[in-house]
Specification:
The chain folds into 2 domains: 275 residues, Rossmann fold; 145 residues, Rossmann fold, CATH 3.40.50. Helix content is 45%, strand content 17%. The chain is built from 14 helices and 12 strands. Strand 3, helix 3 and strand 4 form a beta-alpha-beta unit. Bound molecules: nicotinamide-adenine-dinucleotide.
Length: 423
């Protein structure tokens, strides 16, 4: 029986969705039950209540979470999310994803993730700063350049990372830039970090196209999401010679059979509050229709669960490269496999970001900064090598690239867990 046919349907619960893929890979690896239990259990879960003085003089309590999933390959690495949807189950799933993402990309980090249940858009900069500093104080025994290194995620960015770095440094009594990545360039961020994820998506797409015999100059592409990952992916795919027939954002999709001029779309979006509404270089289509276009390459780079059992049969792309985290629900995997669609999974395809975060940490610890050219060259090489390893694993086990990525990651973390022992 094809082990992937045992995949359970899409779950509301992201941890169970992650585990359904994990279970298939564990079966292929014949993973020992004890090791299975170790790898599925987060090493640490910390939940704190953070009192913050609000601008109106009231005191509000916010819930903050940090989960360290596994630190056998190195210190935990993972972003901090500010959103009203933050909950322990989601943070646990995202932390485990980081473990697999770092392992599959040969980055010497474990996996972690954090979040604060809040609506950052309704808070002032002062309130957000007090909240971020309170969270850092509460996590002083969790964070550390050798222990757990946060980064930005939804609702946070370089500004929040600067506050964490400053608060942590005040508490330990010396300047500690390597406690956090995704910092502003001027205070120790890495060149190339802003473009890193989209660049990695492009390199993964090119590697897959090479295997599939797709000529970039004769291929077409559609990109869902026009934020950091989507817009950079679209720009770089166009530079590689592909015709980008459609792009989209939260305002809808935009289609042009002759190819969209991505430079124009970028300029338009930048001049219109980072949104494409009213973009005239294309006709409007829906986000759903964009996913079903007859293109060679589809890059979902907006959000999770965009391709599910509901629309998987209508997908016409030959290759899907997951720029976003979890854009394909587990329930769609089998249909896409049966249709022969190659899927480069999120834990491989969007690992360019964490790779350059790792480079930022390395540069901070060296106190010596690399040129953008060096950052890009090393990140590209890392992505190509990781892709090749996953591709060969998929051939070896006769499984999809997604399951192969989990096999590579779980095998590595399991081996190191056994070698370290101490259980
Ligand atoms: P972003 O906020 O910069 O951009 C998100 C884009 O998606 C925006 O254009 C937004 O309008 C669009 N969007 C939102 N809801 C949509 C919807 N319902 N339909 C269509 N478009 C919609 O975010 P980002 O940093 O580009 O992240 C996108 C995805 O990539 C997320 O899943 C994120 O977790 C993942 N990711 C990001 C990075 C990174 O370095 N930024 C790294 C790895 C993974």
């Amino acid at each position: 029986m094809n082990p992937e046919s045992t995949l359970i349907p899409a779950h509301e619960n992201p941890f169970e969705s992650m585990m359904s893929r994990f279970d298939v890979a564990a079966k292929i690896l014949n993973l020992d039950q004890g090791l299975y239990n170790v790898l599925k259990s987060p090493a640490k879960q910390v939940i704190v209540n953070l009192p913050v003085s609000m601008d109106d003089g009231s005191i509000q309590i916010f819930e903050g979470i940090r989960v360290v999933h596994n630190i056998n390959l190195g210190p935990a690495k993972g972003g901090i999310r500010y959103s009203l949807d933050v909950n322990l189950d989601e943070v646990k799933a995202l932390a485990a994803w980081m473990t697999w993402k770092c392992a599959v990309s040969n980055i010497p980090f474990g996996g972690g993730k954090g979040g604060i249940k809040c609506d950052p858009r309704s808070m002032s900069a002062g309130e957000l700063e007090r909240l971020t500093r309170a969270y850092t104080r509460a996590m002083i025994d969790v964070f550390g350049p050798e222990k757990d290194i946060p980064a930005p995620d939804m609702g946070t960015g370089p500004r929040e990372m600067a506050w964490i770095m400053d608060q942590y440094s005040r508490l330990v009594g010396y300047s500690s830039p390597s406690v956090v990545t995704g910092k502003p360039l001027v205070m120790g961020g890495s060149k190339g970090r802003v473009e890193a994820t989209g660049r990695g998506v492009m390199v993964a797409a090119r590697s897959a196209m090479l295997k599939m015999g797709l000529n970039p100059f004769k291929s077409t592409c559609a990109v869902q999401g026009f934020g950091n990952v989507g817009s950079i992916s679209a720009k770089l795919m166009e530079q590689q010679g592909l015709k980008v027939l459609a792009i989209s954002d939260i305002t809808g999709g935009y289609y042009n059979a002759d190819g969209i001029n991505i430079k124009e779309a970028l300029a338009y979006s930048a001049a219109h509050g980072n949104q494409l509404t009213g973009f005239t270089g294309a006709e409007p289509i829906t986000n759903e229709a964009l996913l079903e276009l007859p293109v060679d390459v589809l890059i979902p780079a907006a959000m999770e669960d965009q391709i599910t059992a509901h629309n998987a049969a209508n997908i016409q792309a030959k290759l899907i490269v997951e720029g976003a985290n979890g854009p394909i629900a587990a329930s769609a995997d089998q249909t896409l496999n049966d249709k022969g669609v190659m899927v480069v999974p999120d834990i491989l395809a969007n690992a360019g970001g964490v790779t350059v975060s790792y480079f930022e940490w390395v540069q901070n610890r060296m106190g010596y900064f690399w040129t953008e050219e060096r950052v890009n060259r090393r990140a590209d090489r890392n992505m190509k090598e990781a892709f090749e390893q996953v591709y060969q694993t998929s051939l070896h086990h006769g499984c999809s690239m997604r399951i192969a990525a989990y096999v590579v990651a779980i095998d590595k973390v399991a081996q190191v867990t056994q070698l370290r022992g101490g259980i």
